[in-house]
Amino acid sequence: QSVLTQPPSVSGAPGQRVTISCTGSSSNIGAGYDVNWYLQLPGTAPKLLIYGYTNRPSGVPDRFSGSRSGASASLAITGLQAEDEADYYCQSYDTTLSASVFGGGTKLTVL
Amino acid sequence: EVQLVESGGGLVQPGGSLRLSCTASGFTFRNYDIHWVRQATGKGLEWVSGIGTAGDPYYPGSVKGRFTISRENAKNSLYLQMNNLRAGDRAVYYCARAQSTADGWYFDLWGRGTLVTVSS
To answer: Does the distance separating the beta carbons of B113 and A48 come in below 8 Å?
Structure first.
């Protein structure tokens, strides 16, 4: 069981907007530690998508955005495209575990 | 090209040892914390260890005492010595470059990974 909780799957049609939640606790997200998001295409390494809740690395389209509310964070993807079909992971730091922690991952299906 | 390349994975018996390597290129290796993250087949990502620029290591409880991370800046290399391996350690092991902030760290560059299989 992951310290950060994500829905196992989400789906949406091309052009639609989807959100992926990442729920933590007072020892990680709720404590103010950053949430970062990664995208992983099948058979490839993860790729940084969002860091520090809302920041996009160079080259990441502005269709991807992040937000935080209390002990949770969310990744929003607008204008869904077939190429967005992948696994998405949130990541933060947990002060009780003194460890970097990941969510269990969310599989995005583009219908 | 900015990249990380892992090597050293393979098949090992339960209780055995293995040493993974990660070689960096295209950036100033000594200036960055570098970490290991693993992924069992069909499962999520799990942080395994990290090492700071001063050589200070970090481990989660699940591997503390069994795994040792080290770095050799002159060779732009990171290592992971894994001892007393268990079936649950079977995974693809990625090395990842970390950017440290006041509120944690994130991984902005990943290698392609190396597969470790633990089986008799």
So the answer is: no
